[in-house]
Design a protein that fits this description.
Layout: E1 2-12, H1 18-22, E2 25-35, H2 44-57, H3 63-77, E3 81-94, E4 97-106
Helix pairs in contact: 2-3
């Protein structure tokens, strides 16, 4: 099975520049999760809440750090995940463009 969560939008503190550490900024998360169903589903509302709550409570310097942290949390909380494609976008960090970082995580089931 595959779950897609697209355009999960919220504000948080993320970045290395002074203004990024002082002001919340827009962030968008997109993810694709492949998992083993075996009559045990993954509640996508729980995933969205976990991602948003974590990003709003934590203060990450780099998007890469946030990706690693979130992937670990998802694997701990949803042990039947076998593949995670996670992308974090900062849509207003640079003029006239969006900046994103993504990674694909493969987990042993």
């Amino acid at each position: 099975m595959t779950i897609h969560i697209e355009d999960l939008k919220f504000q948080c503190i993320i970045g290395i520049l002074d203004f990024e550490r002082e002001q919340e900024q827009d962030v968008i998360i997109n993810l694709e999760i492949d998992y083993i169903y075996n009559n045990e589903f993954i509640n996508y509302a729980d995933i969205a809440a976990l991602l948003q709550d974590t990003m709003q409570k934590e203060k990450f310097l780099l998007i890469e750090d946030a990706l690693e942290h979130l992937s670990s949390l998802l694997k701990i909380n949803f042990s039947n995940i076998i593949l995670l494609n996670l992308k974090i976008t900062k849509p207003s960090i640079l003029p006239n463009c969006k900046v994103s970082v993504s990674n694909i995580y493969k987990f042993n089931s």
